[in-house]
Structure formats: C-alpha cells, structure tokens
Amino acid sequence: MIPKFVADVMLGSLSRWLRLFGFDTLYSNNFKDFELIKISLQEGRILLTKDRILAKSKLLKEVIFINSEHIDEQLKEVFLYLKDKKFDIKSNSHRCPVCNGEMREIAKEQIINEIPDYIAMTIDEFYICDSCGKIYWQGSHKEKIDEMREKILKSID
Ligand SMILES: [Zn+2]
C-alpha cells in the first residue's frame, strides 16, 4: 500500500521532500489539531507531527511523531515507520512540491515559450503540475532527489 500523509505546520520542509519522492502529502500552515485528526481518519492519511500531545491522541490510527529538527533524520523517521508497517516505500508518481498536485509529462513544444532558452536547448523531458501549472524539468534537481532517496533508504536498511 502506498502511504499518504497530512503534516502539521512545523513540517513544511518534510512535506516538500515527501512530495518530491512522489507521496501524496497535504500541508497547510493553518490546519488546527482537530482538522489534522479528521483529515487523517477520513482520508486514511498518516499524520506527521512534532506535537507530542497530538501524537498521543487515542483517536488517531496512523501517526508519526517527528523528533528530529534535521530533514534527513526526519525522512529517516518516516521511512522507518513505513518499513515497520510494511507500506510501499517506493512511489513512481510525481507530485508538485509546491501544491501536492499530480504532475504529468508534457511535450517541449507546448511549453517552449514558458521556459528559458538555455533549458529549451539542452533539456527534453518536461513535467507540468495539473493543479498549479508549474513546469519542471529533468536536471540537477532530479539527481539531488535520487541522492537523498538513496541516502535515506540506505540508512534504514
Ligand atoms: Zn503544483
């Protein structure tokens, strides 16, 4: 089963990374505690929180208390939980780090006027977010994501 998440206000950076890894992750800077619990239960999302008291709520079914302040340690805490609960830790989908929208591949000709010339000349693979319309392309960005993913997977082995 591929996990879905909802994260509290303290975990913006962790949310962006989980989206980059392809996981459906809801984040808003104004979810109240009761909303986080409701979303988690109704949508079957694992709650990510830095709030010890919230993490202990008896209402919650799936919750990860995030202890660390450092992003790679935070990701490790999430992936250890997923491994322990036998969730799928590899996701093939692409999620927009800005809005959590689904991304799809798009032909260069369709977006040629919206990208810098040097990108148009050197890159052939593009993605667009279906929700906010932001355009992404393969590049150093992807290497950074793969590197981080490998580092985290190795650390939980
Ligand atoms: Zn988006």
Return the structural class. Answer: alpha/beta
Count helical runs: 7
**Average residue pLDDT:** 93
Helix proportion range: 40-55%
Which percent band covers the strand fraction? Answer: 15-25%
Order of helices and strands: EHEHEHEHEHHEEH
Radius of gyration equals 17 Å
List keywords for this structure.
157 residues; four-stranded parallel sheet; three-stranded antiparallel sheet; 7 strands; binds zinc ion
Q: Could you walk me through the main structural features you see in this protein, from its secondary elements to its overall organization?
A:
This protein is an alpha/beta fold. The protein has 7 helices and 7 strands; from the N terminus they run βαβαβαβαβααββα. The protein has a 4-stranded parallel sheet with strand order 2-1-3-4, with helices on both faces. The protein has 2 domains: 5-84; 103-155, no CATH class. The chain is globular, with a radius of gyration of 17 Å. It has helices at residues 12-20, 33-43, 52-55, 71-84, 108-111, 117-122, 140-155; strands spanning 5-7, 25-27, 46-49, 63-65, 103-106, 126-129, 135-137. The longest helix has 16 residues, at 140-155. The protein starts with a strand and ends with a helix. It binds zinc ion. Zinc ion (ZN) binds next to loops.
